[in-house]
Design goal:
It is a single chain. This protein has helices at about 5-10, 20-25, 35-40, 45-55, 70-75, 80-95, 100-125, 135-140, 145-150, 155-165, 170-180, 185-195, 200-205, 215-230, 250-260, 265-275, 275-290. With about 290 residues, the chain is mainly α. It folds into two domains: about 15-95, no CATH class; about 95-290, Hypothetical protein af1432, CATH 1.10.3210. Helix 6 (about 80-95) packs parallel to helix 8. The mean pLDDT is about 85.
Length: about 290
């Protein structure tokens, strides 16, 4: 599978869900009319319903209930809402599969991805560094390349998992052996194809290669730190890490160099506090699955 682009084009990954794609096009213009955006989202009734559920959930703790997309944009801001649209529409498109083996893997995959999104969001709240929801949606989409590999050939992906679990490969090594590519390369092509914003592109492409990253370093490091914490707490997705010492990780080093107050985080206490975030993850999954 040497031509990754060709591989992606042959399946449903070829196109971003329509509403998300059109919104990204609208946002390319400097003068964006909020009514155009809300009108566009509301053409997709199931998506609108899910977005309003998410906006009114404890995730966003809005002071008053929002009953329209226009209100949601005013309360959450256009960038945040756009990112939620991208995340929820992609999630909805790929949550259910006809194949039972794929379905079981998808459940695990989205649990991991949602936990990473939630933990990333917690990190940004904890440090007071906000990334306009890119941290949450980036967490949700960081492993989208794995999803593409699963959809392409679930049996081959089960072999990747066997190599990780039984022969102690790291995920990218196992993917290279089985698919001759890995999830960050595939994910990068999907992000380009879908014309995702730079922030999401960087998270998908560089979350396991932070040293190659030239921009959005704090954002991608926040998502990577969340990814590692999810792995430690039993919400991983076959990355193959046997032992993680957070303070030795590049993500931690970048964040402590960038933010003085990050050095003072008590990891043990932070871990304890995150139990509520796992509960929110369950809530989020319910909202977007139904």
């Amino acid at each position: 599978m040497s031509n990754v682009h060709e591989f992606i084009q042959t399946q449903e990954f070829a196109t971003l869900p329509l509403v998300a794609s059109k919104i990204l096009e609208l946002l390319e213009h400097d003068e964006v009319d909020i009514r155009s955006v809300s009108g566009l989202i509301e053409t997709d009734a199931p998506l609108t319903l899910k977005l309003l559920r998410v906006a009114n959930s404890p995730l966003y703790a809005l002071r008053s209930e929002v009953n329209s997309i226009h209100q949601a944009i005013l309360h959450l801001g256009l960038n945040r809402l756009t990112n939620i649209v991208i995340g929820v529409s992609i999630f909805s498109k790929f949550f259910v599969a006809k194949n039972k083996a794929v379905n079981n893997l998808l459940e695990e995959f989205w649990w991991h991805s949602s936990c990473v999104g939630m933990i990333s969001k917690s990190i940004s709240i904890k440090t007071g560094k906000f990334f306009k929801e890119n941290e949450f949606i980036g967490g949700l989409l960081h492993d989208i390349g794995k999803l593409a590999l699963i959809q392409y050939d679930v049996e081959k992906y089960l072999e990747v998992i066997r190599l990780v679990e039984q022969e102690h490969y790291l995920d990218k090594e196992a993917e290279q052996k089985v698919f001759t590519t890995d999830h960050t390369i595939v994910g990068s092509e999907i992000a380009k194809l879908w014309k995702l914003p730079n922030e999401l592109y960087d998270i998908i492409t560089f979350h396991e290669n932070l040293n190659d990253l030239k921009r959005n370093r704090e954002l991608v490091s926040s998502v990577r730190l969340a990814d590692l914490l999810a792995e430690i707490w039993g919400a991983g997705f076959y990355e193959g890490l046997r032992k993680v010492n957070i303070e030795d990780e590049t993500a931690w080093k970048i964040l402590t160099e960038s933010y003085d107050d990050f050095k003072d985080i008590d990891l043990e206490l932070f871990t304890f506090e995150l139990e509520t975030e796992f509960n929110k993850t369950v809530e989020f999954l319910k909202l977007v699955k139904s």
